[in-house]
Amino acid sequence: MEILKHYNITISGRVQGVGFRYNARTIAQHFDIFGFVKNIPGNKVYIEAEGTENKLIEFIAWCHKGPDFAHIENVDLKPGEMKYFNSFEISR
Asked: Which residues are catalytic, by number?
């Protein structure tokens, strides 16, 4: 069985108003990633993501690109404690 990991991801740039959260949920579900995504002040998106290392690598690679109209300036990645989410949701 693969070990699960948890990452706190903060993405800055043009990431609000471009469908980032909805696309992130779709991509997360595709890669069996659990957690949530939400907009935070400073035109940033915050994600808590859990999954296997290989799936997280693919999800994080997508975070560096984002959806078509996004412009990613920075992706800050911090490992965190597992919370054992059972879905991937858009938080408000």
From this structure: 21, 39
Give the integer Cα–Cα distance in Å for 68 and 52.
26
pTM of structure: 0.96
Virtual torsion, Cα 23, 24, 29, 33, nearest 10 deg: 170
Q: 4-44+52-84: what fold?
A: Alpha-Beta Plaits (3.30.70)
pLDDT tens for the 92 residues of the chain, in order: 789 999 999 999 999 999 999 999 999 999 999 999 999 999 999 999 999 999 999 999 999 999 999 999 999 999 999 999 999 999 98
Question: Which residues on adjacent β-strands are paired with residue 5?
Answer: 51
C-alpha dihedral sign at 56, 9, 14, 40: positive
Name the token pair of 4: 């699960």
